What does this fold into?
Amino acid sequence: MKKINLHFAILCAFIFINAGCKKQSVNAQTQSNETLQSVAPFRVGAAISPTLLQNNSSYRNILINELNSITTENALKWQAVHPQQNTFDFNGGDVIVNFAMQNNKRVHGHNLLWYAYNPDWVKNFVGDSAAWENLLKTHIQTVVSHYKGKITSWDVVNEAFHEDGTLRVEDTNTSDSFDDGCIWARHLGRDYMARAFQYAHEADPGALLFYNEYGQEWSVAKINAIVSMVNDFKSRHIPIDGLGIQMHIDINTSNDGIINAIQQLANTGLQIHISELDIRVNTDNNSSLTYTDALKTEQSDKYYFVVQQYKSIVPKTQQYGITTWNVGDGDSWIRFFFNKNDWPLLFDDNYAKKATYDAFLKALKN
Ligand code: XIL
It folds into this structure.
């Protein structure tokens, strides 16, 4: 009897352990199957390069598996897509859009008008106001028509306001060599934005149209300028559907500033897109900085915070999604644009998931 009991106990223990192991492996399996897109209550995306998409399978696999929205990082900026007056180059954009259609990803087009990234022929263009208007209209309508029904939404105008909330017209900030004012406002008058939105709407009435801007986390003046632009557009029935909060921030960016930006812009009732998220750690521009565990934790906490605030502040019907500005740290504009070492994204230089990825995923789920 004792012997039978012992056998029975061993058998039970075996079944129990086995069941436990099975259960554990199912859990592990479920967790490893989780991706950003599978747990996100809204779209999650990245801005991408057509060259990396074509040449790097790790990059491509992340897009296929993890994300369901794509922004064109540079391929549809004026300089790339319209390099000469009578030449449109849709190669880069088409690579991205074809990939997106094959893989069921949403595409957000960036951007139709910006003060920067314009080719010399545009900067040197000579013509009266009708000729400039024609230039603007032709550009917008040719690009939007080419992608009609394929690109879901557009940043129609990018970064139209100075940091003090005034409209960029002339160069008022000589310390910023990137900013030489805005040719569009200079040649087309202060209401060029409204017409840009109308031209885009005419070319694809189904596309959602966004105004995209940086710095709302620390410039209340910019928020005010954007909100009054939206109110003005609404009162004149100018078609605007959404606002992009770029959110190029760092680990020291004020949490209150982030909350305020999301809240004020969400109050407009428009779609809200965190459109270019990246979080820098090298706040002092230290060339010998290493990416310590302490920095990784601070950065992950910030990612967690941004995603959580977006989820809880923006009403569900206005959650257009969160897009990071490229995929791996080595692809980010931060290193070369600010000429410093930094690690601002969710994947490392070899496309391995970082602690920031885990924090992002956790915030999407919680
Ligand atoms: C950046 C790109 O990432 C770089 O590759 C390019 O050289 C310069 O532009 N705000 C914007 C984006 O709206 O278009 C910028 O993208 C980053 C800042």
